[in-house]
């Protein structure tokens, strides 16, 4: 039930779903709005991007998650990078693997953490936009 709730929240936050190795990965598609860098100033860090372009391909930082209830309850969040071509079609597994190795070869734990924080900030901002939206306007 917790997993379904998380999945529904991510879909409502306008994230796309990509099925990868028996898990659903959610990511923001590379659009003008999603290309804006996210400020991490409130946690003493710089700005990060969660989407972008690399050598003619679009990349997006993605997350997958699942709830664990035993021995301690927690939600595990995994990081992913999703690549699409110019027509917004996600590449196959082999090409994905090669692109990820080339693109993120110099990312260290700090880079992955900062980008994960960025996507969490973006998700919270998306949620605030929904909460602040006038219910009378559609």
Task: Provide a compact summary of the structure.
This protein has 138 residues and is of the alpha+beta class. It contains 3 helices and 7 strands.
Structure description:
- By secondary structure, the chain is α+β, with helices and mostly antiparallel strands.
- The chain has one domain.
- The protein is built from 3 helices and 7 strands.
- The chain has helices spanning 2-12, 93-103, 109-132; strands at 16-20, 23-27, 38-39, 47-48, 51-54, 57-68, 74-84.
- The strands form 2 sheets. Strands 1, 2, 5, 6 and 7 form a 5-stranded antiparallel beta sheet that branches.
- A hairpin with a 2-residue loop joins strand 1 (16-20) and strand 2 (23-27).
- It is globular.
- Mean pLDDT is 86; it is low at 130-138.
What number of structural domains do the residues give? 1
Global Rg: 16 Å
Shape: globular
Contiguous uncertain segments of 5+ residues: 130-138
> Percent of residues in beta strands?
25-35%
**How many beta-strand runs?**
7
Question: Helix fraction?
Answer: 25-40%
Structural class call reads: alpha+beta
Q: What is the mean predicted local confidence, pLDDT?
A: 86
Q: Spell out the helices and strands N to C.
A: HEEEEEEEHH
DSSP helical segment count: 3
Major sheet summary line: 5 strands, antiparallel
- Oligomeric assembly: single chain
Distance between the termini: 29 Å
């Amino acid at each position: 039930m917790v997993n379904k709730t998380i999945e529904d929240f991510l879909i409502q936050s306008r994230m796309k779903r990509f099925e990868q190795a028996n898990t659903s990965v959610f990511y923001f598609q590379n659009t003008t709005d999603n290309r804006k860098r996210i400020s991490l100033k409130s946690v003493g860090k710089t700005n990060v991007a969660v989407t972008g372009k690399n050598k003619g391909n679009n990349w997006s930082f993605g997350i997958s998650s699942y709830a664990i209830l035993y021995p301690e309850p927690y939600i595990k969040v995994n990081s992913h990078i999703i690549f699409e071509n110019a027509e917004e079609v996600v590449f196959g597994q082999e090409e994905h693997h090669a692109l990820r190795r080339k693109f993120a070869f110099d990312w260290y734990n700090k880079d992955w953490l900062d980008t994960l924080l960025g996507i969490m900030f973006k998700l919270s901002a998306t949620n605030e936009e929904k909460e602040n939206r006038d219910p009378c306007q559609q």
